């Protein structure tokens, strides 16, 4: 017994140590809270002042509602309007103090203020009530009157005087935006963008202008040029990140497959980071902009700040303007403020504007639909579902947002074609949410919101007219009947509305509370899915359950295998701050059983010998065998066996140039894909780029009958010429394009994948010559290396070296099929030696390369030349070392002195008078070279 006690003692001591450590941390946190938010630390309080309260345990929603919560500081610390007199309630309180006005500021700002001295100045952002606030003694730097905000500058000592002004409602640091991540390529398969483009070929975003809010994209990029609308708000700084985002949204695909965006006909307008508040309405109206992409963040914030309120206000007023934000790439970070402070991997949205209700925040997934660990997650500061949806953004949420903005442009274009006007932002949001795909058996969650973006599903729902519009009054109700056919696997209904903006720092963002419920033909009542917003990890991870939603302005009901008949949906105006509230309902049917190929789709072009995701959507479960055929199904080659049907499969395509079919075989049935094509992708090279003619070429594909050449014409890669050879001559007097691409044409007449577009002037090839290099060997010989772009119509190569009296021919060799040639100059002279090659054509003409130079020292460690010299004296040294060059006139006076360190240095002497000078080179105090030179 004694031994057991002794053995257990270290564990007990460790547990006791952890206990006291936790208590110490709690005391430290309490001390900081009281010091920061207690009334006597800033100013005296009045009887109506709010209270700083710590609860013994994290309070639930009912407790907070009874206290009139003003702001959550942590899961246990709150600013409250009152404490109920109930003695039972009082037992839940650890302590309470009158609160000062610091609760109106963010934790980040208070931390900065604490680090400053009283005389130090700080620039901050405030929001205020009233029309035009004055904030003595601060200086107003910039006003944003439309959203009752301002940027001010003040000494730290004047902070109490500013924050206690009754009309100042919030204060924050100046947030600096940063792109979330750089995305390298587009993947249109995971989010069914390829299916949407194939099923709705007339919907390309032509009637839509998308604003890209960040630094300026490359307006000369051939995938973007011709659709760029110059803006007074655009940044002067170009950014590769912005170019990639713009390409994902609306790339024309001129450069190749990875340059094709979601809405390739949409126009693009740039807007810089001049302000993180919404751009002025006049900007959107000037260019007819209906969607703006925001692939940036500015640090984790958990509050409904003035920027969040401003975006909600702009969307509610404009109605048809959609703002799409990346949720952020801080999914591994822990929030440091707000009700969810300290809860790992939750509540880490990067920017308070992403807490707005009417915007769309987009999380990031992997290719298998799993959430990326780095993707920022919800809930919003008040427990709302964020992000609304997720998308596969290759490497982060920047690309996920950009792809979603592109899909919004497609939805808006399709709606304009149907109705001639722009759709409400609430309808667009409802279409995206309702068509989003949840994990099998999954429900809405704080990680991926309502599911994974499905472009084809959103357009299909819109095209089918599966949506309703209505208006509800305070205390009133509006009802709809939706027919439910027999044999459905699932029915899904989503309610969305553009909610009026709440006041900045509001403890809950929702202003107009609408409630939805549905009744099926069998009399069963169905409520929306709701999540548990309680600030504890086990609560936030709980699966969604059915209940009344009083937090979100998006609500969703899904019903598995509903009975046939009418679904009666009722929307109630539970609590409205306005006279009425418009809303939209969207619904979707999922039939059973069902199977549909998603990649490849009909006539899709897959690259040969490349990993390609094979995707399908099905209500079947279990496993299946996968095979392919290149002979119309006469024979089948096995790809894989017993594949799980609910997961995609990555297929390494065969090296073939063929029409192909896939077959997925289940126990009692099989599904054959529509025909598609597999082809190698050719590469276009520049053969030569001479004065009057250029030539491009590509490798021969044995199975191809001919080749289709494309040229960039009026912003589009258009068919230019069909050839049977593997090269094309470009006469410069008549050719209008610098960009060319090629695709192989099969004997049956179909085209293979088009190559990447190549600008023949940018491949580093001159008139036949790609490179000519001159390199010194260890024994002071010179190795010449020549690389040709093409050998077409070339006969011979002549190697030449410059001599004092002109060019000397060193040797020659015939041209073969090779493009790489070498020559060794065994006896170069001392100094800077220049070389070139002369290329002889079959018709006797000579084409000369550019000059290549090399420095040679034979008999000396140091060489100084030319002598006589006119303007530049060159010093060659066999070693890298620091030396002093000194020039003296014949009287011994120093006229020039310079420190040099490279093996070859140029010293300007053009300001010296003509005459004779002594040139000396010193290594430390030792003279290592001396010679007279003549300055001309």
UniProtKB/TrEMBL annotation:
InterPro entries in UniProt: Galactose-bd-like_sf (IPR008979), Peptidase_S8/S53_dom (IPR000209), Peptidase_S8/S53_dom_sf (IPR036852), Peptidase_S8/S53_subtilisin (IPR051048), Secre_tail (IPR026444), TagA/B/C/D_pept_dom (IPR034058)
Keyword Signal: yes
The entry's keywords: Signal
Sequence ranges assigned to domain Secretion system C-terminal sorting in this UniProt record: 864-934
Gene3D superfamilies tied to this protein: 2.60.120.380, Peptidase S8/S53 domain
Peptidase S8/S53 domain location: 205-451
UniProt entry tagged with the keyword Signal: yes
Family of the protein in this entry: Belongs to the peptidase S8 family.
Protein name, as recorded: S8 family serine peptidase
